[in-house]
Structure formats: structure tokens, C-alpha cells
Design brief:
heterodimer, A: mainly alpha, 6 helices, B: 264 residues, mainly alpha, two-stranded antiparallel ribbon
Chain lengths: 159, 264
């Protein structure tokens, strides 16, 4: 008996009726709609110029039109779009290859299975620290490469 | 793809993940490490003594705050996410797409975009600069992940076993504790681990809602890293990663290699 021994699936299964479904989904929907939705709504209102605390009550699209006519905004918008598209493509390409390789290895070596989960545990601030470290590694590699080039030049391997 | 190529790609990925930790460890034990040196010019325990003595109380307190916030957030995310994941994974119903879009909203919308709105909203709710507020804002980001893991778990789950247990005289409670929970336990622990780690790493939301009053480990880490003392920053980063690492070690042992097989 395993979890995946399903005789039926979500499309063919008889539902438990509307009330139990609502009760199952309500807590999650409440958290997201009340906590997150409230913040989102206030954010949108703020963007439309509604700030009662500062005496601003009128809704206006002026802030949006100012952003949309600002060339600097489009520059940064374009850069963001470029970075995310390129990294998505690279990630998609590399991860397919890596997933194929790791799927087999993770089954054989427990250590590999463990190691590939590590990035999950390294949170953004830790990521920044690792970023510094990666920069450092690159720096060291450059130094090493320079040393090797110098040595090679001395021995006349290259010009 | 041939086997050697596949094997090499695998080891490259493993090395890419493991390698950044090596200099981090070296940094934390270095006294002096200037540019051209491949190794630190002088070794020492200054960074670690600083963390253990001068900043010791702060670090311990921050670890305590982080553990409490992350554990409560993970428990709530799993408790609220379980029924929702079950409803989404087992059944098709009217408005399922709308429900799933609403529940994904906190993942789709970048946190920076809602930061100001969330801050105002939490002030109005009286939750700003409180523990409950920080847990609440973490929950909005962790819950969607927990729900999506459990959605995957339940779409591979066969509720017929529950009907069989019921027909054999098991009570409703017994069906939950002795049939459902044991069957979904691997996926459930993955969901809890995800939520825990996501909460553990929250910086921006903790800063905005906690207002610097709830000093979790990321808040302290940024403060210490801002001082520009690299060995100390490296040591704090390692302290920061360690508990999460322990959680992962525990889950890897507990969940095993097949843990993620049922997770979409």
C-alpha cells in the first residue's frame, strides 16, 4: 500500500458537498485575503494618492502617469525584464540537465540528495554572504590565473 | 545524455552548492586575509569569540526569537494548509481556479510591492511591532508554499483507505490520526520544513512589521554585516545557517530519499 495507489482522481471523484469544501478552504482564504489582501488594497490606494493620514483623500492617476512617462522607469523596467528573462532561460536549460543527472545520483548517494537541499536552507541574507564569498572565489581564481600566466610566460610557454 | 556526462553535471551542481561554504568557514577563522593571499595570512578565533562573548546575548536571543517565530509559523501554515491542500488535491469544484489564484497571490506579488500597504494595514490592525504581527506576515508568505506542497501530496492520495477504515469501525478521529496522517507524513514534514525555512529567512517583512522590535536572526545578521567586519559576518552567517542545516539533517533522515517523489 503506497500513497500513490489511487483508484480515482480529482476529476472523477465525488466531492464532499459545498459546505465541507468551504470549511476546508475558509481558514487559508481568510489568512490570505485579510492579511495579504488588506495590505495589497492599501498599497493600491496609496499609489492612487489616497493617504488620509496626510490629508490626501482624492483618488488620482497622476502618480501612474508620472511613472509611465519617466524614461528612467522604462530603463529600469527593461533591465529587470532582461535579467529575469535571461535567468529564467538559463535556469530552465541548466535545471533540466541537472535534474536528469541528479535524479539518478540522488537515488544512489544519500549525500547528493542532502547537498542539493542545502540552498533551501540558506536564506537571502545568507545568500548575500554567499554572494560575497562567490565574488571572493572569482577574485581568487583571477589571481591564480594571473600567477599561472606569469609562470607560463617565464617558461616561454606563451608570449 | 551519456552516463559520464550526467555524472559530471551532477557533481558540478553539488560542488557549486558546497563550494561557497569553504571560504565562509575560512573567513570566520581568519584574523588577516588581504587581497593577493590565497589563504588567510593569520588565523584566529576573534570572530567566534566576538559572537560568543560580546554579541553572545544578542545572538542567543535572536536565535530564540527566530526559532519561536518560525516554529509557530510552520505549525500554523501546516494546520491551515492541510485542509485547503486536501480540498484542492482531492476534488474538483466550481471556482477552484479562482481559489488557487487567490492562494498563490502572496507568491506572485513581489513582497517589496506590498510592503508599504502591509505596514499601514498591520498598524491599523494593531499588529505592527508585535510578535503576532511578525508571525502573521510570515504566515501570508509561508502558507501558499505549504498549501502547494500538500496539494501535490493529496493529489496522489487515495481517500478510499479512509472509507475502508470507517467501514471497519474506526472513529473519525482514528481515521485522521491512524490512516491519513501516517500516509501523508513525508509530504507533511516537507511542507512544515518549507514553511519553517521560509519564515527563518524572512528579512524584509520582519523588518517592516517588526519595526526593529522583533529582532530575529536575519535582522541581527544585517546589523552585524553592515559593520563591514568580514570574519564576524562570516561567523554570523554560519550560525544563521546552522539551525536550518540541523532541521534539514533531521528531515533528510526522517523523510528519506523518496520524500519528494510525491510532491509536484
Amino acid at each position: 500500500m503506497t500513497v500513490s495507489d489511487t483508484g480515482s482522481d480529482a476529476r472523477t471523484r465525488q466531492g464532499p458537498g459545498p459546505l465541507p469544501l468551504v470549511l476546508m478552504l475558509l481558514p487559508a482564504l481568510t489568512v490570505v485575503v485579510v492579511l495579504f489582501g488588506g495590505g495589497l488594497l492599501l498599497g493600491v490606494l496609496q499609489a492612487l494618492g489616497h493617504l488620509p493620514g496626510a490629508g490626501l483623500r482624492q483618488l488620482t492617476g497622476a502618480h501612474f502617469s508620472r511613472i509611465l512617462t519617466d524614461p528612467d522607469f522604462f530603463l529600469s523596467f527593461g533591465l529587470t525584464l532582461y535579467v529575469s528573462i535571461v535567468s529564467t532561460l538559463l535556469a530552465a536549460g541548466f535545471s533540466v540537465v541537472a535534474a536528469l543527472a541528479l535524479n539518478r545520483m540522488a537515488r544512489r548517494y544519500r549525500l547528493v540528495h542532502f547537498v542539493i537541499q542545502i540552498p533551501l536552507t540558506v536564506p537571502p541574507p545568507g545568500g548575500i554572504a554567499t554572494g560575497i564569498v562567490i565574488a571572493l572565489v572569482v577574485m581568487l581564481a583571477v589571481v591564480l590565473a594571473q600567477m599561472l600566466t606569469k609562470a607560463a610566460r617565464k617558461r616561454g610557454v606563451i608570449l | 545524455m551519456t552516463r559520464p556526462v550526467r555524472r559530471m553535471t551532477g557533481w558540478i551542481v553539488v560542488a557549486a552548492i558546497g563550494l561557497p561554504f569553504v571560504p565562509l568557514i575560512l573567513w570566520s577563522f581568519s584574523e588577516r586575509w588581504f587581497f593577493p593571499g590565497l589563504w588567510p595570512q593569520a588565523w584566529g578565533l576573534r570572530a567566534w569569540t566576538y559572537i560568543a562573548s560580546t554579541a553572545g546575548m544578542q545572538v542567543m536571543a535572536a536565535i530564540g526569537h527566530s526559532v519561536v517565530v518560525a516554529a509557530v509559523t510552520a505549525a500554523l501554515a501546516v494546520a491551515i494548509g492541510l485542509p485547503a491542500g486536501r480540498a484542492l488535491g482531492l476534488y474538483t469544484f466550481k471556482g477552484k481556479d479562482l481559489v488557487s489564484v487567490i492562494l498563490t497571490l502572496p507568491i506572485i506579488v513581489p513582497p517589496l510591492c506590498v510592503a508599504m500597504g502591509l505596514h499601514l494595514w498591520f498598524i491599523r490592525l494593531g499588529l505592527a511591532e508585535t510578535y503576532a504581527g511578525v508571525i502573521g506576515v510570515h504566515l501570508t508568505f509561508c502558507l501558499p508554499y505549504a498549501i502547494f506542497v500538500l496539494w501535490g501530496v493529496f493529489s496522489n492520495y487515495n481517500p478510499d483507505f479512509e472509507a475502508q477504515a470507517r467501514s471497519l469501525g474506526a472513529s473519525r478521529l482514528a481515521v485522521v490520526t491512524r490512516v491519513m496522517l501516517p500516509m501523508i507524513l513525508p509530504g507533511l514534514s516537507v511542507a512544515a520544513l518549507f514553511a519553517f525555512l521560509l519564515s527563518w529567512s524572512q528579512y524584509l517583512s520582519t523588518l517592516i512589521i517588526g519595526g526593529g522590535r522583533v529582532t530575529t536572526l536575519p535582522i541581527l545578521l544585517f546589523a552585524l554585516m553592515g559593520s563591514g567586519d568580514r570574519p564576524v559576518a562570516a561567523a554570523v552567517s554560519l550560525v544563521f545557517v546552522a539551525p536550518a542545516f540541523v532541521a534539514l539533517l533531521f528531515s533528510a533522515r526522517y523523510v528519506g530519499t523518496r520524500s519528494l517523489t510525491g510532491v509536484h
